[in-house]
């Protein structure tokens, strides 16, 4: 008897979810941040999707969001011409970095001391977060707006993508090492440090390149336009989502389609595997995030597999509370949990639901 994929739906956003990122595994689990056109990035517990808090301060759509490795800091990129750095424990805004145009991408170095940004002004900027008032290092060379910019090779190199070009830069010399052109507009880019692999999507193509040389390793064609793809940490599978509202799971070695699921009610804009590879998250035009099991039927997080005799059923139990409010107070409680936030607000409500 085949198990049916039952995703966890994470609501709370009011407009399309356009980017998401996981932290590394910390002593307190791992965490998930989402960027949304509603201008209110959200932090969640990574394995359950439970809402932890909303970062309030941007005045426009948020196009990019990321967490540092231990989930103590967050960074966001927005249409209000700023990138912001946040304390991910207290929720406080720490730094606002003014830009001259829309910011699309943010990425921390491994030590969290520097922030890389890219956006519509075609420039890469590197900020020293210990000196936020200082002018950033600026790297020019892109000929159209930058869609994604990522540190690579132990922060010694930078990978960036504009409309139809992917570029590799040397951090020390701030010069371009190599550039490759693709046939259609780049829709997403993911850097996989284990193995130095770069995942690039454009049109219906999912391409894998060496992150050190940009030489192509392999590529697959999807049945519909792909907006995002992610490679499993153990490089066994990849998942992709796009314009047909469906998520596809492929065998990385053969390219064979293993599974496909339709759960969203709009195009999928972003998809990422969790750091332990047990689930993957997707964000959509429908304003929701959904968490999907890599191995359907396995007991993990909120998914519980019950096996009475020969029959079995997989359920998830979800406890949730109201996810938006106007009067939100953050209380930092280090003594309870490094990233456990307590919120006080009017009209507290909660509900419990069981989905089969």
Automatic annotation (TrEMBL):
Question: Pfam families from the entry?
Answer: WD40
InterPro entries according to UniProt: WD40/YVTN_repeat-like_dom_sf, WD40_repeat_dom_sf, WD40_rpt
Q: Which GO terms describe its cellular component?
A: cytosol; nucleus; SMN complex
**Superkingdom of this entry's organism?**
Eukaryota
Q: Which GO terms describe its molecular function?
A: mRNA binding; signaling receptor binding; U2 snRNP binding
Q: Which UniProt keywords apply?
A: mRNA processing, mRNA splicing, Repeat, WD repeat
Matching SUPFAM superfamilies: WD40 repeat-like
Query: Please, one GO biological process term?
Result: spliceosomal snRNP assembly
Q: Where do the WD repeat units fall? A: 55-96, 96-137, 139-179, 261-302
UniProt cross-references to PANTHER family, sorted A to Z? EUKARYOTIC TRANSLATION INITIATION FACTOR 3 SUBUNIT I, SERINE-THREONINE KINASE RECEPTOR-ASSOCIATED PROTEIN
Q: Which family does it belong to?
A: Belongs to the WD repeat STRAP family.
Name the record gives this protein? Serine-threonine kinase receptor-associated protein
- Taxonomic lineage of the native organism: Eukaryota, Metazoa, Chordata, Craniata, Vertebrata
């Amino acid at each position: 008897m085949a198990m049916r994929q039952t995703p966890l739906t994470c609501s709370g956003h009011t407009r399309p979810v356009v980017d998401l990122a996981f932290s590394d595994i910390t002593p307190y689990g791992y965490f998930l941040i989402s960027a949304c056109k509603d201008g209110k990035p959200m932090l969640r517990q990574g394995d359950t999707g439970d809402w932890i808090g909303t970062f309030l301060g941007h005045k426009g759509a948020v196009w990019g969001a990321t967490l540092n490795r231990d989930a103590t800091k967050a960074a966001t990129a927005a249409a209000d011409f700023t990138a912001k750095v946040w304390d991910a424990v207290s929720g406080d805004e720490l730094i606002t970095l003014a830009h001259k145009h829309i910011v699309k991408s943010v990425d921390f170095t491994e030590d969290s001391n520097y922030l890389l940004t890219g956006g519509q002004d075609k420039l890469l900027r590197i900020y020293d977060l210990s000196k936020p008032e200082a002018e950033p290092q600026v790297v020019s060379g892109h000929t159209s707006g930058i869609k994604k910019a990522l540190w690579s090779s132990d922060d010694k190199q930078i990978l960036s993508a504009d409309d139809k070009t992917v570029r590799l830069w040397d951090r020390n010399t701030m010069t371009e090492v190599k550039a490759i052109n693709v046939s259609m507009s780049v829709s997403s880019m993911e850097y996989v440090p284990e193995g130095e692999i770069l995942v690039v999507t454009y049109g219906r193509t999912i391409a894998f390149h060496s992150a050190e040389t940009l030489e192509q390793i392999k590529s697959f064609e999807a049945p519909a336009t792909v907006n995002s793809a992610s490679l499993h940490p153990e490089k066994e599978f990849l998942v992709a989502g796009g314009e047909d509202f469906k998520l596809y799971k492929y065998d990385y070695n053969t390219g064979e389609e293993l599974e496909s699921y339709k759960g969203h009610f709009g195009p999928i804009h972003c998809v990422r595997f969790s750091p332990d590879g047990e689930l993957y998250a997707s964000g959509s035009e429908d304003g929701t995030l959904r968490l999907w099991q890599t191995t359907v039927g396995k007991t993990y997080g909120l998914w519980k597999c019950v096996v009475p005799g020969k029959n079995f059923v997989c359920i998830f139990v979800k406890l949730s509370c109201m996810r938006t409010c106007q009067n939100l107070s953050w209380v930092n409680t280090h003594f309870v949990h490094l990233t456990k936030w307590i919120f006080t607000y009017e009209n507290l409500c909660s509900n419990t639901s069981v989905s089969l």
